[in-house]
Write a structure and sequence with these properties.
The protein is an alpha+beta fold. The chain has a single domain, classed as Clavaminate synthase-like (Double-stranded beta-helix, 4-Layer Sandwich), CATH 3.60.130. It contains seven helices and 15 strands. The chain has helices at residues 24-37, 49-56, 85-92, 129-135, 138-144, 153-161, 212-226, and strands at 2-5, 12-15, 39-42, 62-70, 109-116, 124-128, 148-151, 183-185, 187-189, 196-198, 204-206, 233-236, 243-247, 251-255, 265-271. The strands form four sheets. It has a seven-stranded mixed β-sheet with strand order 1-2-3-13-5-15-4, sandwiched between helices. Strand 1 and strand 2 form a beta hairpin. The longest helix has 15 residues, at 212-226. The chain is globular.
Length: 284
């Protein structure tokens, strides 16, 4: 196994390792690397769906086994770029976020694989919330250390795209209508590494003690700051066959725009969060 760290505060590419053939020792080595780097990229693995699920289970139980993230219908046709609710969900993913902060238990991580990529664009970006928190000035740390925010997928999608009622729409996002909205600290401690990190992103709409506008302004200020330093952000240009795993507890991520007349087919396996460490405070 050859590990090539990215020239960032996080992340590494891993070569000379066959993910479908990991033995117990190799699986533990990969897990330890994941905790260290938070993002691991495995070029040219060409995992089948079953192989992807098996690999993801090395990191814990799965929130869900496999979900396509795609603008391509089952019959191979391309979805409407402007008036298709599934494409609207893909557009939402182009904003910075953590997975499942809008659910009672935030996801631990995710495995992503590329099956069809556009000719240009469609990269996935990640941002290091550990480095961002560490570099905050003390006055901002003091301001946010005791603040929590409500996260709502329903709000973040309707605010931007005006989704139809999911009961009558093809779009039926996981966790769309969770109530009460989960309340999460802006600053959390990673339960395996002990590092502090920000938990922010597009799903924040309310912060107790602040007006809605103040809450959204603060969330946007933190997001812009966290994604402003090139050493804390990495965008991966996909090639068919690539597989990645990232730590959702300490990285935000986003998709990048591409020509939506071209197909992009990715598969996502989501790793279940710890029922205590990743639970929203109002669900404990």
């Amino acid at each position: 196994m050859r590990v090539e760290p990215l020239k960032r505060s996080f992340g590494a590419k891993v070569y000379d390792l066959s993910l479908p053939d990991l033995n117990t020792e190799q699986a533990q080595d990969v897990y330890d690397l994941w905790l260290k780097y938070a993002l691991l990229i495995f070029p040219g693995q060409n995992l089948s769906n079953d192989q992807q699920i098996k690999f993801a289970k090395n990191f814990g139980a799965l929130e869900f086994d496999l979900s396509p993230i795609s603008n391509v219908r089952n019959d191979g046709s391309i979805r409407d770029a402007n008036d298709d609710d599934i494409v609207k969900s893909l557009r939402g993913n182009m904003e910075w976020h953590h997975d499942s902060t809008y659910m009672p238990i935030q996801a631990k991580g995710a495995v992503f694989t590329a099956h069809k990529v556009p000719s240009h664009g469609g990269e996935t970006g990640w941002a290091d919330m550990r480095a961002a928190y560490e570099a905050l000035d003390q006055s901002m740390k003091d301001k946010i250390n005791e603040l929590s925010a409500y996260h709502s997928y329903e709000w973040s999608q309707k605010e931007r795209f005006g989704h139809k009622d999911p009961k009558v729409s093809e779009f039926n996002s996981y966790g769309f209508d969770i109530d009460p909205k989960p309340l999460r600290p802006l600053v959390k401690t990673h339960n395996e590494t002990g590092q502090k990190c920000l938990t922010i992103g597009r799903h924040i709409n309310k912060i107790p003690g602040l007006s809605d506008q103040e809450a959204q302004n603060l969330a946007k200020e933190l997001e812009e700051y966290a994604c402003s330093n090139k050493e804390w952000v990495y965008h991966h240009a996909w090639e068919v066959g690539d597989a990645v795993i990232w730590d959702n507890r300490c990285l935000m991520h986003q998709a990048s725009m591409w020509d939506l007349s071209e197909g992009r087919i990715m598969y996502h396996s989501r790793i279940e969060g710890d029922p205590i460490a990743e639970a929203a405070s109002n669900y404990l």
